[in-house]
Amino acid sequence: MKKAIPLFIILVIIFVAPTDAKGNVEPVMPCGLILEPVNNSEINEKGVALIYKVKLTSSFPRTSISIHAIHLLRPSDYGEYDSFEGFSFIENEISWRFKLYPTPEEDGPTWAGRIDDITANLENSKLEVRLANSKTGKVGPAILSNSISLCH
Hints:
The chain is mostly beta strands. It has 1 helix and 8 strands. The protein has one domain (27-150): Immunoglobulin-like, CATH 2.60.40. The protein has one helix at residues 4-16; strands spanning 31-37, 46-54, 62-70, 83-90, 94-102, 111-118, 125-132, 139-147. Strands 1-2-3-6-5-4-7-8 form an 8-stranded antiparallel barrel. Strand 4 (83-90) and strand 5 form a beta hairpin. The longest helix is centred in the N-terminal third of the chain and has 13 residues, at 4-16. The relative contact order is 0.23.
């Protein structure tokens, strides 16, 4: 009987563990993700993403990502940029961009926006706040970032 318990535990780990062969774990939704500054010298820059399934039409549910970012420098402080965008991507597969809108606050705006029509599995994706130039359509480097695998 004593030998059966460790065998049972090993079988449970092998057959019931929530990871696939690559060790990937799909995030449990809804979940929140803290977006940290890419440049560690900007300690006040922070953001948060809310990720969850949303059913807005009669079709199947989609994934919604919303981002709220605060204490960012002006986009023009980084170069020829005039706005920020939310950016989510799965390396070498697909990416999504969505505009972040500033609020009219005294000490600098809060930048926020969302996208509601993602159909892909996001288990290997990354979320970022990136600089953008609305006139040229060019997206710049990431300011805030994190991996969805850390979403909880």
